[in-house]
Specification:
Blueprint: H1 6-28, H2 33-52, E1 78-85, E2 89-95, E3 101-103, E4 106-107, H3 111-124, E5 132-141, E6 151-161, E7 164-173, E8 176-187
Antiparallel strand pairs: 1-2, 2-6, 3-4, 5-8, 6-7, 7-8
Length: 193
Amino acid sequence: MTVPAEASLAHHDAVVSQLRDFLDALASAAPDERSSERLRHDLTRWTETLRQDAVAESRRRYGRSPALAAAGQATTPWYVVDEATPPQRIAGRTSFSNFFLGGRGAAHGGTIPLLFDELFGWLANSAGMPPSRTAYLTTNYRSIVRVGRPLTFTAWTDRVEGRKRFLRAELRDGDTVCAEGEALFVTLRTGQP
């Protein structure tokens, strides 16, 4: 993975933060026809501009910047890793915004395994580790995950058996366990995409 220059990362982080705010506003709004048309026009213009700036996968910043919140992406729940001893353990903070609302103030159930997969990938593919992919991921829901609440997480490597890495995670709202995750990541063979 190519690490972008620090200044480029700061600019990328600012754009992603604004995109995250935009997605939250979009999820919370019911724009009228005029506003919808203006928005569509602006998005079309920006889509064309960004297509002209397309780069190879190895040079992309989106989702490939572990120094930034949520690895520099807006389409996963916001998270920050505060403690890291990869590939053994990471811990940090997260919050599910309105963009991830499922209903009645709770995060959409599918976004919780999305967060766990991000955290497990952070561990399984940390520096010095051979690339791996998710083979399975199980999520056990214990309590409602409310949008807008400060949450904490811990993810750790449970054990390694050859090419198999068994990982576990826990998501908490204070002392309440909201969800637990378990995953198997498998190291890729040479030449596997």
